[in-house]
Design goal:
Layout (H helix, E strand, L loop, with lengths): L6 H4 L2 H4 L6 E2 L31 H8 L10 E4 L1 H13 L5 E6 L4 H9 L2 E6 L10 H6 L5 E7 L11 H14 L2 E5 L14 H4 L3 E6 L1 H4 L7 E4 L3 H14 L5 H12 L1 H25 L3 E2 L8 E2 L2 E2 L7 H10 L3 E2 L1 E2 L10 E4 L5 H16 L5
Parallel strand pairs: 1-12, 3-4, 3-5, 5-6, 6-7
Antiparallel strand pairs: 2-8, 7-8, 9-11, 10-14, 13-14
Helix pairs in contact: 4-5, 4-10, 12-14, 13-14
The chain binds pyridoxal-5'-phosphate.
């Protein structure tokens, strides 16, 4: 494995130091929970090894209400990140090929690269409203293709596939005898009703998600993958056992107790998302130097500067952080030009979001060559 650090992680807010950022619009999740704000009873918890697939009650909760799925189709992992690693390292060798919808969350690209697999990219463009070209995707399948990798709702753009296109991609995987990995880490943050878990639609689809983004619990490091394919599950379990045997019992227990009460927390999370989104939408409509494709999911958007040729990206990002205390995710985190930027609008409180957006406008004032 040829590991290389990813810009999105190397330059992440936690690596920069949270205390060095006043207005953090670089996160892709809702506000992080503080432990004291969750009602928990943990005194009787045995700090033992636990079920290798993960706490059964938690796995049951994850697939509850999803047709065709039961707890045996769910494997708990250390965040969605390790689920992605388990899948890539179980399915790929350096002789294999995969198709990645691009841009994408960096791990979905970097792990296959570290393995040495060949990759065909299906590029999403602003001009095409970030929608993938399904015919090009089908054409990209080769004899040694193992899977198609998509993130949906999409990071960094917030694009939602039409249900028809999701079904088409799954059909392609079935017909070609390959898999489709649907990174659904933002599924519960769809602005309309979420689609069914992709894994519930076909044994060729693998779903991945976690409690990080929608619930603001990224520090729990609790995620999962879902597949109805028993042979695949056996492989993924073998990988999990070799990497970390089990999840942390503490993380599992906190996630279980939180999800059992999720409706209690969800109402205020949703209200916060909506209030902040309205502010973002108003601001961007009035900000004549930017344009965007309005997102359909996630808590991010990926606008771009209209006059890219006259835009001094280095000056902009430097001023934005140093003078205005504001951080966004620059395009290069996603292998895109830096006149694109990811803005996360639901991690900060309303006031901080307003100040961060004002900071972006102020930095834009000073970042064009005259
Ligand atoms: C699309 C996507 N997948 C997976 C992850 C990893 O999330 P976690 O490991 O915290 O669940 C992220 C984090 O940003 C993401 O954006």
């Amino acid at each position: 494995m040829m590991y290389k650090r990813m810009a999105i992680e190397k330059e992440s807010p936690e690596e920069m130091g949270y205390s060095n950022i006043r207005y953090n619009l670089a996160e892709s999740s809702v506000t992080d929970f503080i432990l004291k704000d969750i009602s928990l009873g943990l005194q009787d918890l045995s700090l033992c090894y636990t079920d290798h697939r993960g706490k059964p009650e938690l796995r049951e909760l994850i697939c509850a209400g999803h047709k065709n799925l039961d707890k045996n189709d769910v494997l708990l992992t250390v965040g969605a990140a390790s689920a992605l690693f388990i899948i890539a390292s179980s399915l790929l060798t350096s002789a294999d090929h995969l198709i990645v919808v691009h841009p994408n969350y960096a791990t979905n690209i970097e792990t296959p690269r570290a393995i040495g697999s060949a990759i065909s990219y299906i590029s999403l463009s602003f001009e095409n409203a970030w929608q993938p070209d399904i015919a090009a995707l089908e054409k990209a399948v080769q004899a040694n293709t193992k899977y198609i990798s998509i993130t949906h709702p999409h990071n960094p753009t917030g694009m939602m596939l039409s249900r028809e296109n999701l079904d088409k991609i799954i059909r392609i995987a079935e017909q070609k005898g390959i898999y489709v990995l649907v990174d659904e880490t933002y599924r519960e943050l769809s602005l309309t009703s979420p689609y069914p878990l992709a894994a519930s639609l076909s044994s060729h689809a693998i779903s991945v998600s976690s409690v990080s983004k929608a619930y603001g619990l990224p520090g729990l490091r609790l995620g999962w993958l879902v597949t109805k394919n028993e042979e695949l599950m056996e492989k993924f379990l073998a990988a999990k056992e070799q990497i970390f045997i089990t999840n942390s019992v503490l993380d599992e227990e906190i996630a279980l107790q939180f999800l059992l009460e999720k409706e209690r927390y969800w109402k205020s999370i949703k209200a916060h998302i909506q209030t902040n989104f309205s502010l973002l939408e108003k601001w961007i409509q009035a900000e004549s130097r930017l344009e965007w494709i309005k997102p359909g999911g996630g808590v991010v958007c990926f606008p771009r500067v209209k006059d890219a040729a006259n835009f001094n990206t280095e000056r902009f990002y430097d001023l934005l952080l140093r003078q205005y205390g504001t951080m966004v995710g620059p395009g290069h985190w996603f292998e895109m030009p830096d006149h694109y930027m990811r803005m996360g609008y639901a991690w900060p409180g309303y006031e901080d979001l307003a100040k961060g957006l004002a900071g972006i406008s102020a930095a834009l004032d000073k970042s064009f060559y005259s």
